[in-house]
Amino acid sequence: MSRPVIVMPDAVAVVTGYLRSALAAAGEPVPVVSRIPSPRPSRFVRVERLGGLQQTVVSDRARLDFHAWAATEAGAHDLCALVRGLLGAIPGVRDAVTVYTVTEVGGPQWLPDPESSQPRYAFAAEVHMRGRVA
Fold first, then answer.
1. pLDDT band at 3 (very low <50, low <70, confident <90, very high)
2. Domain 6-133 belongs in CATH node 3.30.2000.30
3. How far, CA to CA in Å, does 57 sit from each of 83, 84, 118?
4. Residue spans per domain, the chain
5. DSSP 8-state assignment for residue 79
6. What order do you get walking across the sheet with 120-130 strand by strand?
7. What CA–CA distance (Å, rounded) separates 58 from 68?
8. H or E segment at 130?
9. Which of the pair, 79 or 4, is modelled with greater confidence?
10. pTM for this structure?
């Protein structure tokens, strides 16, 4: 008898979908993307997977970077702080994926965009999610 194949979720898709809805519900409907849009909006959030490890046979711990751009340093900070807070509420079932925990691995940092000089803040977190049987 063969062992079932477990497919891990697309952590970026799960998290960006959740953040789009959560930010809109918080009165901050900004684009949440995996790639920098062209043209650039004045405010947006990018979620990028930088790695992570399979946590168990049936779960993945994705390491994600979160970047928040805005017109001012204070605006970028506040958007980053809101995303950070909302991310802490993601555990549960999101888009049919079970999210277990979020562990921050790098707190907010001022990180002006070298391409555009646009104000940006960033932080990093690991998001532990359950896979599914293929």
1. confident
2. yes
3. 29, 28, 41
4. 6-133
5. H
6. 32-33, 44-56, 59-69, 120-130, 97-110, 92-94
7. 31
8. strand 120-130
9. 79
10. 0.94
